[in-house]
Every structure is written in structure tokens, then in C-alpha cells.
Amino acid sequence: MKRLFIAALLPQDACLHLLTLQQALLDSAVSCRLTRPEYLHLTLRFIGEVGDQQTAEITAWFNKLNKLDAGVFPCHIAALDNFVHREGLTVYAALEVPESLIRFQNTIEQGLRALGIPA
């Protein structure tokens, strides 16, 4: 089983801003585990645990998809929020992104549902 998600890379300025915010959290937290800079991303769709056959189907579908320009998309950190899970608290940034990225995310969602991947 593989744990899959589809993500977009963040612009460098957004990454730098997030790294500054991470440092502030680290300075004020009792305990904190940070995301390494190379792993910062915008999750477009969390898929979850899937087997090899379904991984191959999703990969084939995604490779045929018309992708957005591989260049950087503008984004703005709109807010910080969090959620609790069994390992603790996860803090995340809510981003404002262009409409083209929202449409692409909707295309991803529709395609995955057509493959039988639930929302």
C-alpha cells in the first residue's frame, strides 16, 4: 500500500514566509517538529492508502491530464489554522490562489471520483 496525494510546489517567497512562521512556532512551542523546506507544498488532493494496481491507474490518469504551466503560481498566505490528530497538533497555512489553480483542483477531484476514489 502506498499513501498518495497530489500537490503543487510553492513559490519561493511563500516558502520563505512559511519558514519564518515555522521558526516563530519553534521559538514559542514546548515541542515542535517542522516540515523540511523541500517538503513544503500545496496539497491539491489527499488520496490516501492505495494498492499497486490503483496506484498505476491513478498515475496513468494523472500523466494524461493537461497540467497547468509548470511555472510558479502566485499565492498569498491568508491564514494559519490547525487540526488535532493522535500524534498532536498540525498547523497549516490557508492560501489564496488563482482561479486557474482552483479549476485544476476541481479537474483532479472529478477525475479521481471517475476512477472510484471517494472524496
Task: Characterise the protein shown here.
The chain has 119 residues and is of the alpha+beta class. It is built from three helices and four strands. It has one domain (2-70, 99-114). The protein has a two-stranded antiparallel sheet with strand order 1-2. The chain has a two-stranded antiparallel sheet with strand order 3-4.
Strand content: 25-35%
The dominant shape is globular
Let me know the average pLDDT.
90
How large is the radius of gyration? 16 Å
Q: How much helicity do the residues have? A: 25-40%
Number of alpha- plus pi-helical segments: 3
* Domain unit count: 1
Number of strands: 4
Ends distance: 19 Å
Spatially, the strands of the biggest sheet line up as 1-2
- Spell out the helices and strands N to C: EHEHEEH
**Structural class of the helix and strand makeup?**
alpha+beta
Spans where pLDDT lies below 50 across 5 or more residues: none
Largest β-sheet summary: 2 strands, antiparallel
Topology:
Blueprint: E1 2-9, H1 12-28, E2 41-50, H2 52-64, E3 76-85, E4 88-96, H3 99-114
Antiparallel strand pairs: 1-2, 3-4
In short:
The protein is of the alpha+beta class and 119 residues long. Helix content is 39%, strand content 31%. It has helices at residues 12-28, 52-64, 99-114; strands at 2-9, 41-50, 76-85, 88-96.
List descriptors.
119 residues, alpha+beta, two-stranded antiparallel sheet
